[in-house]
């Protein structure tokens, strides 16, 4: 019997995870053995080479783990925890630890409500999700600036949601008010952290979006486009998430 | 830095514990055999479950079997079932890149001593977990042999 397309995708991903993981295990294992081999002393130069190879191997393994998580979330094989937490507090704690783009003097500052967003959620996965989103936005900024993560409560149709607007200091309100467009999760250098982040947010009944580019904004140029790529808005309903 | 030595393994018996690796991926099997040899185990590998089963039936059972789950021909769970039928006290540790709960439950139900995800973390914690599972299985064998 043919596999339904919806089933085929997670199965393919799961198989890919398995097939990637084994050679990654082997490469990592040989490198560790080389590092710890008591019979051979590596020169400083050789040790640096092995260190670099180990770092890349670790990246590969992290990527495989993310792929595995995506495959399992899509297949319904893992479930998000439902622990009581305060989303605004969590966001503040995550923001404190983000180091991305500090070398370019791009800073992340948290504003708005410091607490008061009770959510039944998966704390470690939400932390990873916000970490990835913050890093994605900070990476977009070319030079010295401050990115704001503004926490606010939003009441619509009787439903209260915790909203986090991540945008350049001068654009927070504009980003929030602009019509919602898709959040671009295909950004280099972040592995699969953004596709995973979206799934985690959606798994909490929430959503992530970016402001639509302003009319006439060319791809890769103009304020409208910069606002779109350089901002993200996350909304998660309070209380028991889906 | 030299890797850790495992005196407990050597003290358990005068002969080196004999571990077989059953995995169709020869690169992984080679790596694992080298890793285990460095830790004082005697090793052998088979690329198929039926080859392992034949060796056991011919009177060449190892102390421990490390058995891959996904293999051509008899898969890991089928091989486990056949191995336990041929030699119920054989200690089999399932080894896989996947950690599906249903597979783990089935493996334990069929009598697997343990289920270890193929080591792939950069810190080498997976290797420590594997070595710990092997040592635990050897200890179980020793206790059983003392009782019987």
Brief summary of the model shown:
Chain A has 242 residues and is an alpha+beta fold. Chain A is 48% helix and 21% strand. In chain A, the strands form two sheets. In chain A, strands 2-4-5-8-7-6 form a six-stranded mixed beta sheet.
- The ordered string of helix (H) and strand (E) elements of chain A is HHEHEEHEEHEHEHEE
- Largest β-sheet summary of chain B: 5 strands, parallel
**Oligomeric category:** heterodimer
Number of domains of chain A: 2
Given the C-alpha coordinates, what overall shape of chain A results? globular
Number of domains of chain B: 1
Helix share bin of chain B: 40-55%
The 3D shape of chain B can be described as: globular
What would CATH call the class of the largest domain in chain A?
Alpha Beta
CATH-defined fold name of chain B: Rossmann fold
Residue stretches of chain B low in confidence (pLDDT < 50, at least 5 long) are 1-8
């Amino acid at each position: 019997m043919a596999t339904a397309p919806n089933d085929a995708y997670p199965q393919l991903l799961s198989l890919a995870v398995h097939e990637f993981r084994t050679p990654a295990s082997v490469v990592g294992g040989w490198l560790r053995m080389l590092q710890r081999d008591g019979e051979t002393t590596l020169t400083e130069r050789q040790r640096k080479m092995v260190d670099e190879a180990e770092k890349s191997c670790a990246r590969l393994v992290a990527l495989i783990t993310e792929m595995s998580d995506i495959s399992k979330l899509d297949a319904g094989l893992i479930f998000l925890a439902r622990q009581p937490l305060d989303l605004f507090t969590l966001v503040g704690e995550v923001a404190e630890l983000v180091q991305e783009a500090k070398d370019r003097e791009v800073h992340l500052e948290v504003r708005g409500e410091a607490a008061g967003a009770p959510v039944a959620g998966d704390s470690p996965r939400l932390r990873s999700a916000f970490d990835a989103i913050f890093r994605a936005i900070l990476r977009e900024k070319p030079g010295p600036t401050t990115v704001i993560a503004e926490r606010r409560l939003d009441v619509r149709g009787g439903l209260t949601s915790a909203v986090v607007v991540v945008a350049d200091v001068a654009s927070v309100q504009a980003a929030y008010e602009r019509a919602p467009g898709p959040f671009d999760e295909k950004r280099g250098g972040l592995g699969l952290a953004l596709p995973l982040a979206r799934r985690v947010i959606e798994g909490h009944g929430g959503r992530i979006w970016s402001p639509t580019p302003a009319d006439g904004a060319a791809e890769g140029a103009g304020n409208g486009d910069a606002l779109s790529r350089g901002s993200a808005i996350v909304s998660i309903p309070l209380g028991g998430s889906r | 830095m030299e890797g850790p030595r495992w005196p407990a393994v050597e003290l358990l018996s005068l002969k080196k514990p004999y571990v077989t690796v059953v995995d169709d991926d020869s690169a992984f099997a080679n790596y694992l055999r080298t890793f285990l040899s460095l830790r004082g185990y005697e090793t052998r590998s088979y690329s198929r479950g039926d080859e392992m089963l034949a060796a056991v039936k011919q009177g060449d059972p190892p102390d421990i079997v490390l058995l891959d789950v996904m293999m051509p021909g008899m898969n890991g769970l089928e091989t486990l079932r056949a191995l336990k039928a041929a030699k119920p006290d054989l200690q089999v540790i399932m080894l896989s890149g996947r950690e599906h709960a249903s597979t783990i439950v089935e493996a334990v139900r069929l009598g697997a001593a343990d289920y270890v995800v193929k080591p792939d973390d950069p810190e080498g914690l997976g290797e420590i977990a594997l070595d710990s599972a092997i040592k635990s299985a050897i200890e179980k064998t020793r206790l059983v042999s003392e009782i019987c």
